[in-house]
Amino acid sequence: MKKSDVVSEILKDRLYVSPKNKIGEAYAPTNIALCKYWGKRNQELNLPVTSSLSISLADKGAAVSIKVNSVDQVILNNVILTPDSGFSQRLFKYIDLFRIENSIFFQINIQSNIPIAAGLASSACGFASVIKALNHLYAWELSNRELSILARLGSGSASRSIVHGFVEWHVGKRDDGMDSYSELIEKEWPELCIGLCILNRDEKKISSREAMQRTIETGSLYPAWPAKVAVDLSLLRQAITSNDFELLGRTSESNAMTMHATMLSAWPAISYCLPETLVTMQKVWKLRDEGLSLYFTQDAGPNLKLLFLKKDLHFVVEQFENVEVVNPFR
Ligand code: DP6
Q1: In which band, very low, low, confident or very high, does the pLDDT at 118 lie, cut at 50, 70 and 90?
Q2: 3-184 domain in CATH 3.30.230.10?
Q3: Backbone region of residue 12 per phi and psi (left: phi > 0; alpha: psi in -120 to 50; beta: other values)
Q4: pLDDT tens-place string over residues 66-76
Q5: Residues 6 or more apart from 49 whose CB is under 8 A from it?
Q6: Where in the chain is the domain with CATH 3.30.70.890?
């Protein structure tokens, strides 16, 4: 099954309508997985090996506007990208799935307030905001489930960026992925804070796509990953339902460390850690030993995301220079 088959299945005859609005606009928050998506059972459709669970980052994300134009063009944070830039090509490959007539071109204007490709899930909010903006432009009136499936075709983690709050992406069983979509967990946790510790802004050397594939193919620890995810998902659901922050923090940190262990067991081994990543981890562990309720998670990049409660905000900001704090339920 190809991506275009999934698009036709969801949009059916709506795929053939022309834009109903002059401009399609949307915003999507980025998200941070507390239980990670690491490994695909289908690379074409970005179907995962396991379910995953994330928290959306409120006003950290991407705002997109799309309109019909005389040529294809991407403007990212007020800079016009050259058509051969990697970002522009990946985006228009995705847009092509929804372009029935080759004679129609688009200008896509993206305002993103997170570093691109530094392990801060920029592709997640990028593809989620683009599909939401197309939905607005064409007035398709898609449901969040359908938007999540279509966003997944751009990037797996984008399927979790359609809504705000805690989100679970269901693994699904079907080959066409119609049961692999994300859903809001109806629970707010206003005291929860996320601290973005940007330790390095360089573009990552190996994409998560490539890294997860190498891990599946060669990682000797990868076979243990699905069972770890099953346990962590159930602990996280329990932590969220019962407002148990220690359980949430412990489970998230352990899940991230295990994901990175599967990568270290790949050949050639993959490590996204820089010396400053390890220094920051040691600092979190030391503060925790001293009684602070502080945890971290790490994605496919050297930056860490801290997890803590509002009551410790001042202390955390004092301890970690340049930390940017997000309150997902503000
Ligand atoms: C480590 O969603 O970027 O952030 O589906 O190939 O685009 P593709 O991968 P992507 O992978 C995200 C990996 C992760 C964990 C997570 O967000 O769950």
Answers
A1: very low
A2: yes
A3: left
A4: 999 999 999 99
A5: 38, 39, 40, 41, 171, 216, 225, 226
A6: 192-326
Which residues have CB under 8 Å from 271's CB, separation 6+?
A: 260, 263, 264
Judging by DSSP bridges, how do beta strands 295-298 and 182-185 pair with one another? unpaired
Angle at alpha carbon of residue 20, lines to 19 and 25, rounded to 5°:
80
**Ligand 1 pocket test, candidate residues 3, 35, 37, most atoms within 8 A of CB:** 37
The predicted model scores a pTM of: 0.96
CATH class belonging to 192-326? alpha beta
CA dihedral 231, 152, 270, 320 (to 10 degrees): -80
For tokens 């599967």, what's the residue?
Answer: 262
Residue 190: what are its φ and ψ, rounded to 5°?
Answer: -60, -25
Distance 69 CA to ligand 1 centre (A): 31
Question: DSSP labels for 212-261?
Answer: HHHHHHH-TTGGGHHHHHHHHHHHHHHHHHTT-HHHHHHHHHHHHHHHHH
303 lines ligand 1 (CB under 6 A): no
Q: Give yes or no for residue 157 CB within 6 A of ligand 1.
A: yes
Strand 40-42 versus strand 47-48 pairing type: antiparallel
Locate CATH 3.30.230.10 in the chain.
3-184
User: Around 152, how many Cα atoms within 13 Å sit in the side-chain half-sphere?
Assistant: 32
In angstroms, the first-to-last Cα distance of the chain is 41
62: nearest Cα among 10, 2, 11, 128: 128
Residue 26 Cα distances to 29, 74, 130, angstroms: 10, 16, 7
Would you tell me how many other CB atoms lie within 10 Å of the CB of residue 315? 13
Residue 85: band (very low, low, confident or very high) from pLDDT cuts 50, 70, 90 = confident
Calculate the average pLDDT of the chain: 95
Category of 139 on φ-ψ map: left (φ > 0), alpha (ψ -120 to 50) or beta: left
User: At residue 99, does pLDDT exceed 80?
Assistant: yes
pLDDT at 116: 61
Give dist(CA 171, CA 177) in Å, integer.
9
